[in-house]
Design a protein that fits this description.
Elements (H helix, E strand, L loop, with lengths): L1 H20 L2 E6 L5 H16 L3 E4 L28 E5 L11 H5 L3 E6 L10 E4 L6 H12 L5 H14 L10 H12 L4 H9 L4 H12 L2 E3 L4 E6 L1 H7 L7 H8 L6 E7 L4 E7 L5 H7 L3 E3 L2 E6 L3 H15 L10
Parallel strand pairs: 1-2, 1-3, 3-4, 4-5, 7-8
Antiparallel strand pairs: 6-7, 8-9, 9-11, 10-11
């Protein structure tokens, strides 16, 4: 434990040192970003600007519609030709996961990875990894403290959203006393917890609800109910006036079923399926995603596969095979 704490402190010191030496900072994250990715990116952006740095948030897919309520979301870029002293990738399990931003990230004088997952492929000059953190948002709060930068209400809102979403609104096992203390600090700094929760969980478009219903109606289960999967077709998106982002909660809906250990959602596009993988605690879905050219973290991964029946069967068979391995027993997310 002492060694882990020493390593963690050294990682934070290296991260803060790199920020202090930089005048300009590029902030990015993984493709198809979730709330932790967007919230921690924007939270860091606010903090760096308050520290007198020039900073820019760039990611391949922007902020989507779900996170537009976060202060600064409308300023996220999808590309840049600008040169930066420091490039920071948050919540990212491999440099390939930043998508089209990779070239811009690699042009930075120094590249740093900040993540609360140990899984993935090491990259960059500096890595600060803290598996005890419930979300990267917690780690960004520590950076603010180390820089002696007050957390503004805008930064607090982004960081609170990061933690709220990546903990499933404080439901998951990684939530600690420290997580709750940090959230209390963010509320004291001006974040509105009720508003953040409302925006993330209680403001879904009607089309999203109808899409979720259609997908769940078609859901299939295997392995005695431990594996659940379904698909959202292009016809569904057209019929319900929904977007790919509106399907995000379908995979979580399936995982909420008591017997389900692994949930798989296929989102159809014109040329392939975008796959979302989620698990409780018995299967590393990031390794499953990597088998099909994707990546992610232990409990959340993604990849793309062909639209042929054989492609789908191969993915589902691989997921089932992992569930059937000795030692994979039901658990809690």
């Amino acid at each position: 434990m002492a060694g882990d704490e020493t390593e963690r402190a050294a990682g934070l010191e290296a991260a803060v040192g790199a920020i202090r030496q930089a005048e300009s900072v590029l902030i990015t994250t993984h493709i198809n970003p979730d709330g932790d990715a967007i919230g921690s990116s924007l939270g860091l952006w606010h903090i760096l600007r308050a520290a007198g740095r020039t900073a820019c948030v760039v990611n391949q897919d922007g902020a989507g519609t779900r996170y537009q309520f976060l202060p600064g979301a409308d300023g996220i870029k999808t590309g840049t030709e600008q040169a930066f002293d420091l490039g920071v990738a948050v919540d990212c399990g491999g440099i390939g996961r930043v998508g089209r931003v990779r070239d811009a990230l690699e042009r930075c004088n120094t590249v740093m990875r900040i993540d609360h997952h140990l899984a993935g492929e090491p990259f960059g000059d500096i890595e600060w990894l803290d598996p005890d953190a419930a979300a990267v948002g917690e780690m960004i709060v520590e950076i603010a403290r180390a820089l002696a930068v007050p957390v503004s209400p805008q930064a607090a809102t982004c960081l609170l959203a990061s933690i709220v979403e990546d903990t499933g609104c404080f439901q998951f096992s990684r939530v600690s006393a420290l997580s709750l203390r940090i959230c209390a600090e963010l509320v004291a700094a001006g974040a509105d917890l009720h508003s953040v929760v409302q925006q993330l969980y209680w403001r879904n478009p009607e089309g999203a609800a109808r899409l979720r219903g259609a997908c769940l109606t078609r859901m299939r289960t295997q392995c005695g109910g431990r594996l659940a999967w379904t698909a959202a077709s292009t016809t569904d998106f057209d019929q319900f006036g929904a977007t790919e982002e509106d399907a995000d909660e379908v995979v979580h809906d399936m995982l909420r079923i008591g017997t389900v250990e692994v949930a798989v959602l296929l989102r159809e596009s014109a040329k392939d399926y975008r796959v979302s993988l989620r698990s409780r605690d018995s299967v590393d879905v990031a390794s499953l995603a990597r088998e099909f050219g994707g990546g992610g973290h232990e409990r959340a991964g993604g990849c793309r596969i062909g639209k042929g029946e054989a492609d789908v069967e191969a993915l589902i068979a691989a997921a089932a095979q992992r569930l059937e391995k000795p030692g994979n027993t039901p658990g809690v997310p």
